[in-house]
Amino acid sequence: MLQVAFPEGYILDVGWRPSFEIDGKFHVVLIKDYDWSSPIYSGSAENLVELKENINKALVVL
Predict the structure, then answer these.
(1) Residue 52, SS3?
(2) Residue 24 to residue 9: CA distance in whole angstroms
(3) From what superkingdom does this record's organism come (predicted)?
(4) Residue 15's closest CA among 4, 7, 37?
(5) Whose CA is closest to 40, among 61, 56, 25, 13?
(6) Separation CA 42–CA 31 (nearest Å)
């Protein structure tokens, strides 16, 4: 859905899971050096307000 690359090997990824399901949730992960198995931050959100909060929490790590 959204993927942003930052300096020093950080990637912020926002997706919807389960894909194409109306009852899904946004999932926010921050990874470093393509290590998807050990995210630095991981969160989920049911609405846009929570999504914004999760993105801000992930960006604090940067």
Answers:
(1) helix
(2) 29
(3) Bacteria
(4) 4
(5) 61
(6) 9
Give the pLDDT of the chain (62 residues) as one tens digit per residue.
999 999 999 999 999 998 888 889 999 999 999 999 999 999 999 999 999 999 999 999 88
Least Cα distance to 7 among 29, 32, 40 occurs for 32
Dist CA 47 CA 6 (whole Å): 25
What pTM does this model have? 0.90
Closest CA to 29 of 54, 60, 7, 53: 54
Length of the chain: 62
* Token representation of residue 26: 């946004």
